[in-house]
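Dear colleague,

Thank you for sharing your sequence with our group. We've completed the structure prediction you requested, and as agreed, I am returning the results in plain text so they can be pasted directly into your records. Please verify that the sequence below matches your submission; if there's any discrepancy, let me know and we will rerun it promptly.
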Amino acid sequence: MNNSGVREIDVVVIGAGQAGLSAAHHLRRTGLVPDRDFVVLDHSPRPGGAWQYRWPSLTYGRVHGMHALPGMELTGADGSRPSSEVIGEYFAAYEERFGLRVHRPVAVSSVREGDGGRLLVDSSEGIWSARAVVSATGTWDRPFVPRHPGQETFLGRQLHTAGYRGPGEFAGQRVIVVGGGASGTQHLMEIAPYAAETTWVTRRPPVFVEGTFDQEAGRAAVARVEERVRLGLPPLSVVSVTGLPLNDAVRRAREEGVLDRLPMFDRITASGVAWDDGATGPVSADVILWATGFRPATGHLAPLRLREPGGGIRMDGTRAVRDPRVHLVGYGPSASTIGANRAGRAAVREIGRLLEREPAPAG
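Please find the predicted structure tokens below.
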């Protein structure tokens, strides 16, 4: 700590979800010591990243694509337990095994330019001065709800999937689910047996994909997302370019009419939604559930002016092109759990080169 009360360190990792823990693990493997050479700041009250906020009915056995953290497998988990508990305990055990010493709950408000080529990280526990920053803040804190005419007039309940706590709260109600992604279909299928009536609305016709999602398809999807961030455009989720898997549950829901889709409505009314084409609706509702995704939580990086005219942060691998001291992991093409692991390793490799080129001042 210097005379101004600012704590100096080599690397600050912001966020302790999958991507942040992966980065911290690889920093540890290079010989850097937690709380001496790097620090991990996490705003959540406990381990688990965004998983700790998942709804109780999402059991671990229903989770798709959870990839183990580097260096420690998740084995013997009870598939009937809530994923929030299983993965939260796994992350906690991981932090303890590798001695990552995560600081929580610590909120980071901004990352800004400091003296001597260093970055200042303003947080609820004080200011950190770092030579490099790994931003691993994900998307959970930025649920996206599009604006529609009449939205403020609706007399029922509106919520985003971030606030979803299970299907029981919709018993006997008329529910409109908006969104054509994986969360929209999952929530719709889960709510349908409880609700009096469900309606599915999507901007584009959903694409259901037969067969397994193999490595080649995964690489192609990641490449499409990666191309956008190289151009400085806002990233799409990997899921958005893969289509929806056509499994047995989805087939049954389609046969039962649960997944009969309507085009996007033109306006929201006091009692539901309406279309201007004269051929659709109107549909009355008690609840509108917005399954409309999330946006990257990068507001803390705003003082560095990393955004391009296209609205995104232009990336070269995990490195922000406008500032090579800043790495984003779990962003764009690395938003999947396996992608987050790889991004953590790649970021640390680049940061190692940066620290070698710019040795810390003596004293």
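Summary note from our side: Residues 53 and 245 are 24 Å apart (CA to CA).

Kind regards,
the structure core
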